[in-house]
Amino acid sequence: MTTLTRRNEVLAGLGIGVLALHIVDDSFLQPQPGTSAGDHLAGGLVPLALIGLAAAAYPRVRAGLRGTLALVFGVFALAVGTTEAGYYTLKVGPSGDDYTGLLTILAGLLLLGLGAWTLWTTRKLDDGRLRRYVRRSLILVAGVVVAAELMFPIGFGYAATRILRPVVPAANLGTAYEDVSFRTSDGLELRGWYIPSRNGAAVIAFPGRSGPQKPARFLARHGYGVLLFDRRGESESDGDGNLFGWGGDRDILAAIEFLKSRPDVDPQRIAGIGLSVGAELMLQTAAETDDLAAVVSDGAGTRSFAEEMEEFHGVNKWLGMPMLAVKTASVALFSNTAPPPKLTDLVPRIEQPLLFIYAADGGVETMNPRYYRLARGPKAIWAIPGIEHMGGITAHPQEYERRVIAFLDRSLSQRGRAQAVEQR
Within the chain, how many helices (H) and strands (E) appear? Predict the structure, then answer.
């Protein structure tokens, strides 16, 4: 073994070792508040096993494969480091496992440089120019395909289970509110704001405390109590985050229980308005309990491979299938959570009134007409042309307010009258 080869192996071992150290730190040594090392077994042990196999194989394989391994793990290290440690360092400053995450960024750059240098210095030069360039072109195309269909969705899956809003936004609710907290069925403490009700009804505006402030302001003007809170893994709430909201129905169920305990709220008159992933979770929760009396779903889309296979058609479906499958598998692995049931299976179980709002010109909201057709209870739909995702409240604020308030007034007043009749 030459001195140069030995040096390359040492550098590769250093880069891969730093990546492994951060995964151990992130998954087991410094897990998120409210979670333990046991909650991250799959998401930590599977990557560590793959890293261990790569480290063991690296000195035993040919130079071309060594360079490829270094590039693959370099890309993964950059994704792991930048998506979490880089993001939170820029937003709020480094803390906890961010320090090993920042080292992982350097490890990723080291591995990428090592991989590129290895492939360049060991390239074949003894065959014909045409054959040589054809081979290199094929290798380049294969690399692009692997990056698009494998490395990108794996990195995205990691990011989707690590990055949510890190700070609480400024409150701009237009009225007095209370700081509140409550616990989920799996023991997480969630924190948020509550605007007391003046009409006996309350609405959960979800998710988070940023986007839901817009509907919260007009709901409060009409006398509704409004609960906004950080979902699990976000800002001041415990738990691991999940960009697609897997497991987040437990957050809404806990919010319902909190509102049912409030003296200003009629337990039969609790509704929800969900935005994007919040809309999907509101629909799921409404299928699980009738304690949610009505739902406004704004911008619902899809959350997993099974749902995306119903959303896409033709060439787009078949070309996107590998990437979408890897993305869902990655989210499941890194979140240690199984994908939720399909919304097309859940919506037919909802008996409560539903109002669907969506962007009519395509994008991520194309499934809404189907969700509307599948709904069996009282329902309404508002297709808005010429807007982006969840853009209705900005483009048509007065009509948005009028439609939502009319729907809630009608749905919750009927619920209240029905309960009064039952009591008599």
Answer: 16, 8
Give the burial string for 270-309 (b: 16+ CB within 10 Å, else e). bbbbbbbbbbbbbbbbbbbeebbbbbbbbbbbbbbbbbbb
Assigned token pair, 287: 């299928």
231-245 burial: b if 16+ Cβ within 10 Å, else e: bbbbbbbbbbbbbbb
| Closest among 297, 308, 384 to 340, alpha carbons compared | 308
b/e burial code for range 8-30 (CB count within 10 A of at least 16 → b)? bbebbeebbebbbbbbbbbbbee
Q: Which residue spans within 230-284 are E strands per DSSP?
A: 270-275
Helix (H, G, I), strand (E, B) or coil at 133: helix
**C-alpha to C-alpha distance for 230 and 241, rounded to whole angstroms:** 10
pLDDT, position 1: 56
Secondary element (H or E) of residue 189: strand 189-195
Residue pair 186/336 in contact by the 8 Å Cβ criterion: no
70 closest CA partner among 110, 115, 109, 9: 115
Residues 333, 43: contact at Cβ < 8 Å? yes
Report the 10 Å Cβ neighbour count for 219.
Answer: 26
pLDDT band at residue 415 using 50, 70 and 90 as cut-offs: low
Strand order in the sheet with 202-206: 178-183, 189-195, 225-229, 202-206, 270-275, 294-298, 354-359, 379-384
Crossing angle (nearest 10°) for helices 41-57 and 3-24: 180
C-beta separation of 274 from 206 below 8 A:
yes
- Residue 24: per-residue pLDDT: 95
pLDDT-based confidence at residue 123 (cuts at 50, 70, 90): confident
In this structure, the number of other CB atoms found within 10 A of the CB of residue 332 comes to: 19
Tell me the C-alpha distance between 216 and 169, whole Å.
14
Residue 350 per-residue DSSP state = -
| Distance in angstroms (rounded) separating the CA atoms of residues 198 and 201 | 8
If you search the block for the tokens 């853009």, which residue do you land on?
391
Q: Using alpha carbons, select from 213, 207, 170 the residue that is nearest to residue 190.
A: 207
Please give the backbone phi and psi of residue 123, each rounded to the nearest 5 degrees, phi first.
-70, 150
Q: Which carries the bigger pLDDT value, residue 392 or residue 420?
A: 392
Query: Are 112 and 64 in contact, with CB atoms under 8 Å apart?
Result: no
pTM above 0.90, yes or no: yes
